[in-house]
Amino acid sequence: MPGWVARSAQPQAAIAKPVLARSPAAPVAARSPAPAVGVGLDSAAVRVRMAQRLEAAGITHPGVLHAMASVERHRFVDSALVNQAYEDTSLPIGLGQTISKPSVVARMVELLLGSEAARSGLGRVLEIGTGCGYQAAVLSRVAREVYSIERLRGLHEKARHNLRPWRLTNVHLILGDGMQGFVNGAPYAGIISAAGGNSIPDAWCDQLAVGGRLVAPVVVGDGKQALLVIDKSSHGFKQSILEAVNFVPLKSGIA
Ligand code: SAH
């Protein structure tokens, strides 16, 4: 059995809360979500199977596989979509936005962990596009601090609500225009965007630490998007364009 499964395949009582909780003393019971219909008490096994499919598809980082096997994606989607929560599909989260496919989340987080800066563990990360908060929860398992910014008040509040039961002390949710980055948390060892624009805002490159890596969708031609990786070194920036992706558009301003 792979090492990352061994810790994940605990009984549900041991996995559902403690895996995400950073402050065990915090009284989470009052806001503890009810078991999801359809996924229910064996959701840990369903997640482990999802992580095994991700591993078969090429994800190798044990921290990423463990995070994907741990974070309860079904808690982040509407109750009508719970049965699809562990399929490799993007799902609507309201206000015309979508939660990315698990395979895309895992791929982008694994890329983030491949930077020079992440060799000794991933430090501060900026996520642009909090959405429902799922990817922020995944990032909280692999990075020391997560700053996640969202421009739509309704989703910022939804993410706050979704994440509240786990009291993740290393996740900071910000309502703001992520095209400006978030200077208060800079420099970042990693920047990850869940929305794609025509170019990468200068603020993101400025706020990236030397040795850090930016992973974002960007429009490359014909309105099609590809995954872009930018590594910052003391000599400058190196960029690589990877596979085609399909993200919601990066927009400016708060709404
Ligand atoms: N990571 C999210 C996916 C959200 S979809 C999750 O796990 O659910 C992408 C999000 O990017 C949308 O919620 C959209 O409103 C947001 N977004 C688009 N442009 C933005 C900007 N300039 N600043 C902050 N968020 C932005």
Automatic annotation (TrEMBL):
GO BP terms? methylation
Tell me, in one coarse class, where this protein mainly resides: cytoplasm
Does the record bear Transferase in its keywords? yes
What UniProt keywords are attached to this protein's entry? Cytoplasm, Methyltransferase, S-adenosyl-L-methionine, Transferase
Q: Give the top-level enzyme category.
A: transferase
Q: What is its EC number?
A: 2.1.1.77
The protein's location, in the record's own words, is: Cytoplasm
Q: Which domain of life is it from?
A: Bacteria
Gene Ontology molecular function terms on file: protein-L-isoaspartate (D-aspartate) O-methyltransferase activity
Q: Which Pfam families match?
A: PCMT
Instruction: Output the Gene3D superfamilies linked to this UniProt entry.
Output: Vaccinia Virus protein VP39 (3.40.50.150)
Which family is it part of?
Answer: Belongs to the methyltransferase superfamily. L-isoaspartyl/D-aspartyl protein methyltransferase family.
| NCBIfam families referenced in this protein's UniProt entry, alphabetically | pimt, PRK00312.1
Q: What name goes with this protein?
A: Protein-L-isoaspartate O-methyltransferase
Could you read off the lineage of the organism from its UniProt record? Bacteria, Pseudomonadati, Pseudomonadota, Betaproteobacteria, Burkholderiales
